[in-house]
Amino acid sequence: MQNNSRFTLSDLAKLAGVSTSTASRALRGNPIIKQQTRERIQALALEHNFSLNAAASRLRTQRTHVIAVILNLTEHTEQSINDPFLLKVVGDLNQALNERNYELLLSNSFMAKDDWTQYFIKSSRADGLIVVGQAKSDTKMIAAAEAGAPIVVWGDPHASAKYTVVGSENRLGAKQATEHLIKLGHTRPVFLGDLEHAEMGERYKGYCDALAAHNIPLDDSLVMSTDLTYQAGYDCINQSVKTNGLNFDGIFACSDMVALGAMKALKERYVNIPVDVAIIGFDDIPMAEMSHPALSSIKQNTKLAAEIMVTELLRQLNGEPGQSHAVGIELKIRHSSDPTRT
Amino acid sequence: MQNNSRFTLSDLAKLAGVSTSTASRALRGNPIIKQQTRERIQALALEHNFSLNAAASRLRTQRTHVIAVILNLTEHTEQSINDPFLLKVVGDLNQALNERNYELLLSNSFMAKDDWTQYFIKSSRADGLIVVGQAKSDTKMIAAAEAGAPIVVWGDPHASAKYTVVGSENRLGAKQATEHLIKLGHTRPVFLGDLEHAEMGERYKGYCDALAAHNIPLDDSLVMSTDLTYQAGYDCINQSVKTNGLNFDGIFACSDMVALGAMKALKERYVNIPVDVAIIGFDDIPMAEMSHPALSSIKQNTKLAAEIMVTELLRQLNGEPGQSHAVGIELKIRHSSDPTRT
DNA sequence: TTGAAAGCGATACCAA
DNA sequence: TTGGTATCGCTTTCAA
């Protein structure tokens, strides 16, 4: 501990022989201040390791330059908190925010108090909210939006939402994935996912679209609802095969984690993947290409999505209205669905 | 936007017919205030959705109740930013901090300005720093510690550090991993990792310990230095086998990501795992048990580590001296090293 | 182009 | 047990 007595703007100003007003303006590069003065003060600040007190500045300006990112998880803690996909989104958001000179306050829905607007916005902890994951209920998001809080949510962009949503073309992605299986001759594909979840509901529609496009009747026994975890995917497929035998020849899973769980269950039973059962997931997490066989998937463009989310949020901070966006997806074909690929 | 005019403590006080001093004390549950008054004011606050202005409070108290968590990444951005292990640590830190009523400001070493103390501490953005990843150079950490900033680093706890470090028993873990391979008859194990990295250096020592304990001479050609990524692990083993043939019968990899890359390279060459080559990694990421064969690994107790890091940091905030801690590890035996396991 | 001074909203000392 | 009041450090209006 060397320099304990705080070195404030007024100290700096005194040192430079100017008023705090001038010093403040100079540091912010206000052109109203003579360039020479500006440079002198900036140099002095650098030399003395000076930095403005953010708390004071925030109090005065009523702006924090902080965005709260809330990981909106479901009850089973262990689930999504380890989902590499969600964490990737957080990483990308961090990057996008920093580039615009905003900081990221990380929270999750277990920790954050119930009233987000009150806790983050009214209290001057953050200027806006980004929620990752629509989960099954969006009452908190709606409440925040209605209270006037700037908010952007990662979720299903086609939801008739009362708040701004950015997300992938879920329905299209699911359709492409399912069609990919069908075209390779797998006409009895399973839908594996969580129907109560908005994004997954869209993916289910895409699955149905693909079946319809190929005149394949929907077989309810192939629609399996399950949590979005590795373990749940494993259990679900394991149970299904045990009970009904191998009455399907493909799997479209709503997340790669689920797909990998399903794959494990099949491998344990020596099912030939992709010949007897072709599998495709969603998200394209890094693990997808590492699995054996490498997992086909629908890649979500999280980097682009993160940038859009931040842009939208800053728009709202400027008083402009928000607008939802759907981000394109990309079919990644690998060996788990197509034997000609690696 | 409904309630735009800010509702401040003084408004609340007026409403309650008391002074701001009393209101402030009541809200914080100060027992000096008559219980009846306290409850009345708290109820009023709840009713009016009141929350204290954090910026003002921080300015006045000179405490932010915020901890900056810095992801300290190496140059190759793409690398660690996707490493599930590091992200898990962040998740656990978030939990541990929230439990103690602290918030987490997320940064990474690319974004954070150079002088951490100045940017985070002097500027009243955070009360302390937690750095995840020692990387290859620790000059910034040393600078922060010398400037008197409360700081705790995730890294190698046996480093002769000038700052508080919390980390796993790297040497012991590596020794156990390597011995596990040896005991199963794999007497020519490769060491796969990045020797410039402090934690990995310790793991290398552990690897040597195990060899020495079994009177196996160290063979330099089996020590392979590589980046800690999936791709690097793949390339390294691929290249090695191509050049020298299969001149090893086991792999101890410094991270699961590297191990999985190596595994993929071997599988492509139809090497029998674990019979011909047994593999074990480090970290025990979720993917480890999903891979095929499931990957043996050394589990790091990140949850406990996160709690210790937070405890240590709060200690420093109280002016007490910091102390480094080594957290125990656990050998997880799976099929990639032991054919009798699943 | 610069300076004086008011005030952002809480906390805590001192008095009562 | 409560209240008055001086700060915390910065930004910004108004005046010079």
From TrEMBL, chains A, B:
Q: Which domain of life is it from?
A: Bacteria
Q: Which Pfam families match?
A: LacI, Peripla_BP_3
Keywords from the UniProt entry: DNA-binding, Transcription, Transcription regulation
Which SMART domains does this chain map to?
HTH_LACI (SM00354)
Q: List residues of the HTH lacI-type domain.
A: 7-61
Gene Ontology MF, one: transcription cis-regulatory region binding
Alphabetical list of SUPFAM superfamilies matching this protein: lambda repressor-like DNA-binding domains, Periplasmic binding protein-like I
Q: Which InterPro entries match?
A: HTH_LacI, LacI/GalR-like_sensor, Lambda_DNA-bd_dom_sf, Peripla_BP_I
Kindly indicate whether the keyword Transcription belongs to this entry: yes
Q: Which CDD domains match?
A: HTH_LacI
Name of the protein this chain belongs to: LacI family transcriptional regulator
Q: Source species, please?
A: Alteromonas sediminis
